[in-house]
Specification:
By secondary structure, this protein is α+β, with helices and mostly antiparallel strands. It contains 17 helices and twelve strands. Helix content is about 50%, strand content about 10%. It binds zinc ion. Zinc ion binds next to loops.
Length: about 450
């Protein structure tokens, strides 16, 4: 969509800034941020307003350190425009919008409710609060009628909303527009008095907070985000035949099809590239959930693909199946359960299924085998209570264990196959010697 001149209002205060200047090392800042995030993460579900305030405090502290004009670092409206302008955040937003279905839905719904009006202005203009049971568009139209067309002040966000609506177009699903609404939701928390307790206002809180968190959290250093892992681990957990060679990650052992698939994932997630089968990541660590969401949107949906055809396998099962096959246990089908059912796979034959279960249960019994099928049963004192997200993570942990031990496991499986193979009948026992062998002296 062509940028309207009015959209420039969303970031005008940022001047000619293109990107915030990220602080290199700043222990003091991160300590401060951590204390707010702890409160943000701890607060329970119905304290959305408090959680939002904590997250906002962390983001603003960070933005103040990143803003080029230190003299204005205390001006929240200036910082908000700088944040809305920042290229990195905008790119990440666009990327997440592309690869994360759930987030995209959330953003679309959020934009469909826009614009968000300033609560004090609504009060002053005697416009009754929006009731979520009623049509939002009718409310918006009525409220906009109260804003004089020639007025420079825009008591709503995004500031270009009226122009978009008049042109009969959707609000652009980009970072600048969405962030301007997030900032407005925040303003209403401060200035709206009791208004945020109003059911209408509450509709904005959760999505505003979720979107801000999803886009911003990648700025946190790895110590603050525990799910950040090395690229080698991420690749092994997803079944890629990667190895470390001279401090680089090589994929020379991988099939051509999988290298192509990996390149596609790297491009779609803006993670970096493969060059001469060497991984050249943009950053040495990766937030695993981000990687997995990219895989989730990038793979096909055949349950019966070949074990080395990673592009056809479920996100959370590809690694486990690949490494089992590498260890010498062939599989036919696999399914990670898609967060609903329990992850399972079907081995090529019953003996392979028994071997697989035996291997996988080596550290702790957590898989059930029946016929050719092996199913994850759960872990801990109450296996049935294992949450879907924990089950899926477990599959990745198991994949990593298999990958790291694959050479040894391969010889164990080979030995076990020898043990269970049909043996030539034993030679008859030699006849007992007439004289006892042991003689006492
Ligand atoms: Zn606009």
């Amino acid at each position: 969509m062509a940028e309207k001149s009015d959209c420039g209002k969303l970031t005008a205060a940022a001047g000619d800034l293109q990107a915030l200047v990220r602080p290199a090392e700043n222990a003091e800042l991160w300590d401060f941020v951590r204390s707010w995030l702890r409160r943000f993460e701890k607060a329970d579900g119905d304290k959305a307003a408090e959680r939002f305030v904590c997250l906002w405090a962390a983001v603003m502290a960070w933005a103040a350190k990143c803003s080029p004009d230190a003299g204005r670092a205390h001006e929240e409206s200036y910082l908000a425009h700088c944040l809305a302008r920042d290229q990195k955040l905008a790119e990440r937003f666009a990327n997440l919008y592309k690869i994360d279905k759930d987030l995209r839905k959330k953003i679309d719904r959020f934009l469909a409710l826009a614009p968000v009006f300033l609560a004090p202005w609504l009060q002053k203009s005697e416009i009754p609060e929006w009731d979520p049971a009623q049509d939002r568009r009718a409310f918006v139209t009525k409220a906009l009628e109260k804003v004089p067309a020639e007025s420079a002040a825009r008591p709503y966000a995004p500031a270009c909303a009226r122009e978009h609506l008049l042109a009969n177009e959707k609000l652009p699903a980009d970072w600048a527009h969405v962030f301007s609404i997030v900032a407005q939701v925040r303003r209403n928390l401060f200035h709206g008095g009791r208004n945020y307790k109003n059911a209408g206002e509450r509709q904005f809180l959760e999505p505003a907070m979720a979107i801000l968190w999803e886009v911003w959290r990648f700025e946190l250093p790895s110590g603050l985000l525990i799910s950040r892992i090395s690229w080698l681990r991420a690749l092994l957990r997803s079944g890629f035949m990667a190895r470390e060679a001279e401090n680089r990650i090589s994929l020379t052992d991988e099939t051509e099809a999988n290298r192509k698939y990996l390149q596609k994932l790297l491009t779609s997630g803006h993670f970096g590239m493969l060059k001469n089968d060497i991984l050249l990541p943009n950053e040495p660590y990766i937030e695993e959930s981000f990687w997995l969401r990219t895989v989730d949107s990038g793979h096909g949906s055949s349950e019966a693909g070949r074990a080395d055809d990673l592009a056809s396998m479920d996100t959370y099962m590809a690694g486990l199946v690949r490494w089992l096959n590498e260890a010498g246990i062939a599989t036919e089908l696999s399914c990670d359960g898609h967060g609903e059912r329990k992850p399972s796979f079907t081995a090529a034959d019953e003996e392979s299924a028994r071997l697989a279960a035996w291997l996988l249960n080596f550290r702790a019994p957590q898989f059930n085998q029946s016929g050719k099928t092996v199913k994850y049963a759960g872990a801990g004192p109450n296996p049935n209570a294992t949450k879907p997200a924990d089950r899926l993570k477990k599959m990745l942990d198991v994949a990593e264990w298999l990958a790291k031990n694959r050479e040894d496991l391969k010889s164990i499986v080979a030995s076990m196959r020898k043990v269970s193979a049909a043996k030539a009948p034993l030679k008859p026992e030699p006849a007992a010697p007439k004289e006892p062998i042991l003689k006492t002296k």
